[in-house]
Amino acid sequence: MHTEFKKVAMIAHDGKKADMVGFFKDHMDVLENMAIVATGTTGSHLQKAGLDVDCKLSGPKGGDAQIAALVAEGDVDAVFFFRDPLGKHPHEPDVQMLMRVCDLYDVPLATNPSSGGLLMMGIRDILKK
Ligand SMILES: O=C(CO)COP(=O)(O)O
């Protein structure tokens, strides 16, 4: 099981960006002590909300693929990827690749705010030890 949490990725489809900003605010105390990498537009929302973020390309322009590469290289410890199941995404193959790479390397992946909250509870617990 993954037990080290130094860098996390945050990604949200357009319909879920407000949820992601709310999630960040709820967990700011933990997230501000971690390195954060994000896809471009999600990252700019998080920066505006006060988080120091390494912004990659926008998702449709290759940002999900960049984050997948970081996961494959062992450089990301958890992925918060709030997906919009009602949206159509031109880069769906990249989305699938990112999720596949998380499964391949057994990196925790939360695809909605509730699972994100539960993952964050686990991270908090591990960081306390
Ligand atoms: O498209 C995304 C995830 O697949 C998110 O990309 P942005 O953060 O650039 O909107």
Structural summary, described in words:
With 129 residues, this protein is of the alpha/beta class. It has a single domain, classed as Methylglyoxal synthase-like domain (Rossmann fold). The chain is 48% helix and 15% strand. It is built from 6 helices and 5 strands; from the N terminus they run βααβαβαβαβα. A 5-stranded parallel beta sheet has the order 3-2-1-4-5, sandwiched between helices. Strand 4, helix 5 and strand 5 form a beta-alpha-beta unit. Helix 4 packs parallel to helix 5. The longest helix has 16 residues. The two termini are 15 Å apart. The mean pLDDT is 96. Bound molecules: 1,3-dihydroxyacetonephosphate (13P). 1,3-dihydroxyacetonephosphate binds next to helix 3 and helix 4. GO terms for molecular function: methylglyoxal synthase activity. It is an enzyme of class 4 (lyase). Keywords: Lyase. Its EC number is 4.2.3.3. Pfam families: MGS.
Topology:
Elements: E1 7-12, H1 17-26, H2 28-31, E2 35-38, H3 40-48, E3 54-55, H4 63-72, E4 78-82, H5 92-104, E5 109-110, H6 113-128
Parallel strand pairs: 1-2, 1-4, 2-3, 4-5
The protein binds 1,3-dihydroxyacetonephosphate.
Protein name: Methylglyoxal synthase
Enzyme class: lyase
Function: Catalyzes the formation of methylglyoxal from dihydroxyacetone phosphate.
